[in-house]
């Protein structure tokens, strides 16, 4: 839509300078009908399809990445109260459960998901008519279908009913849509994911950095898990082939080991300063420091007044079993400059040559999650605890964890063990909030944790004498989904806000 607004603006501007009829397109604009023709055109369009993912997951200092809504709004992480800089206070609101429709994180998610959808629709509306090799055509089509399904799945989980658009937007009327029931959105997601799976390449021959067939089946399995369609989930997930667990948990996230054998889908970043596609998660997640050089690998003298976000909670740290090697790989502790054993996310902490550029990718789907999804889908069908344990123990008792195999036969206990394993294995990968919601545990868990924070704020990184606002940490049914950004409500007369906002 932004392309057409820009074109209209330029046309009006040019026409105002002359009485002659305006019948030429601005030379700086490439019209869609002149672009989606050659294989190179679709190659560029496909790259453009992936670009919004970097903003969606976070890029730049003090970003508004998916970690705010997916991880910090959970019992896994919180924030370090920054008494000297309250400029990013709206990030706190998501964790405090007092966020509103003007928040930057919801706008970031909503906007970038719909940018992905529109770009996918542009490709899909023209790819069938392109005169390019059929194998390439199928691959580009599969990429677009996957990312459209992925973006809608993100939207529907966080916002509920959302406008469903499956054709390219060419005028204002196309954009002013009512919200579509989420059941219909889920139907489209499953269709897109199934079609993507039939078109994409297996990982063995796929171009690294782009999604392969296994990613589509993983997404499809995830959708069926959320919908509690357990048999369909199992069937889809058994089709995820060509991946393996790594023996070294820390190596999964090492920038020198990107797109490794366990990685199914990760958002690609690069720390080359000239490329402007670097990540900066570590700068957001490290403690607030005046000299980041005290943390190994970071530039001396670089300050970090943006940090202190997504700080691991005492509750999460205590959830790790004794001897679990994943703790050391996931969480670091810093003492100095007024901090005593202050935890921070180490999983994405691999240094930086030029502040604030880091080279870490963001994991979206890993094979470990596929195994845990299989364990869950099988357990929920009942009577198959041995099979469920087989998949669970591949993750839990793997050499990289240092833990002994579990021996559980009770369905309820096994369910709890699977969810605990997800919390530990997938910590800081934006899974926890959605897991709490779909398991109907969010209200109980977060309100209980909120009571603990209010009773002892200093244990949760508040300065002495500072307490959370009285309205904080009161999760209700309405807040299990987020508000539609207020800008969308103002612009679209057919858009209705979620209850309670």
UniProtKB/TrEMBL annotation:
Annotated keywords: Cell outer membrane, Membrane, Signal
Cell location: Cell outer membrane
Family: Belongs to the SusD family.
UniProt-listed SUPFAM superfamilies: TPR-like
Main location (coarse class): membrane
Residue stretches making up the SusD-like N-terminal domain: 86-224
GO cellular component: cell outer membrane
Residue span, RagB/SusD domain: 321-501
Protein name per its UniProtKB record: RagB/SusD family nutrient uptake outer membrane protein
């Amino acid at each position: 839509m932004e392309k057409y607004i820009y074109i209209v603006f330029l046309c009006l501007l040019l026409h105002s300078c002359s009485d002659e009829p305006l019948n030429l397109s601005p030379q700086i604009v490439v019209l869609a009908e002149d672009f989606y023709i050659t294989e190179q055109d679709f190659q560029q369009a496909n790259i453009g399809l992936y670009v919004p993912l970097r903003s969606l997951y976070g890029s730049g200092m003090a970003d508004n990445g998916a970690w705010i809504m997916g991880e910090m709004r959970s019992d896994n992480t919180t924030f370090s109260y920054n008494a000297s800089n309250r400029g990013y206070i709206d990030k706190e609101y998501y964790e405090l459960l007092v966020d509103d429709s003007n928040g930057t994180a919801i706008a970031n998610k909503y906007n970038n998901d719909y940018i992905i959808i529109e770009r996918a629709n542009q490709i899909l509306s023209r790819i069938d008519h392109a005169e390019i090799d059929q194998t390439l055509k199928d691959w580009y089509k599969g990429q677009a279908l996957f990312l459209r399904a992925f973006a809608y799945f993100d939207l529907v989980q966080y916002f509920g009913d959302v406008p469903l658009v499956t054709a390219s937007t060419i005028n204002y009327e196309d954009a002013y849509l009512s919200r579509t029931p989420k059941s219909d959105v889920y139907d489209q997601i499953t269709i897109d994911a199934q079609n993507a799976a039939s078109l994409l390449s297996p990982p063995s021959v796929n171009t690294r950095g782009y999604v392969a067939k296994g990613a589509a089946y993983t997404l499809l399995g995830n959708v069926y898990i959320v919908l509690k369609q357990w048999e369909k989930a199992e069937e889809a997930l058994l089709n995820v082939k060509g991946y393996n667990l790594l023996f070294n948990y820390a190596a999964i996230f090492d920038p020198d080991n990107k797109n490794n054998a366990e990685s199914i889908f990760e958002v690609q970043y690069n720390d080359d300063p000239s490329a402007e596609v670097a990540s900066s998660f570590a700068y957001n997640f490290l403690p607030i420091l005046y000299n980041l050089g005290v943390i190994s690998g970071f530039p001396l003298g670089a300050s970090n007044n943006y940090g202190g976000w997504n700080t691991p909670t005492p509750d999460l740290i205590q959830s790790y079993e004794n001897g679990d090697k994943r703790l050391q790989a996931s969480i670091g502790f810093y003492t100095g400059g007024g901090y005593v054993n202050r935890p921070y996310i180490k999983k994405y902490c691999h240094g930086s040559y030029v502040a604030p550029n880091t080279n870490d990718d963001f994991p979206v789907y890993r094979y470990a999650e596929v195994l845990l999804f299989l364990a869950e889908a099988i357990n929920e069908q009942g009577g198959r605890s041995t099979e469920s344990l087989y998949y669970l123990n591949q993750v839990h008792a793997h050499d990289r964890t240092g833990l002994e195999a579990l021996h559980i036969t009770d369905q309820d206990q096994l369910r709890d063990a699977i969810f605990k394993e997800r919390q530990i294995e997938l910590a800081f990968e934006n899974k926890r909030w959605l897991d709490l919601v779909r398991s109907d545990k969010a209200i109980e868990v977060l309100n209980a944790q909120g009571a603990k924070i209010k009773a002892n704020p200093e244990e949760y990184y508040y300065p002495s004498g500072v307490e959370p606002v009285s309205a904080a940490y009161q999760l209700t049914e309405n807040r299990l989904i987020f508000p539609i950004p207020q800008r969308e409500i103002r612009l679209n007369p057919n858009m209705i806000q979620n209850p309670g906002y």
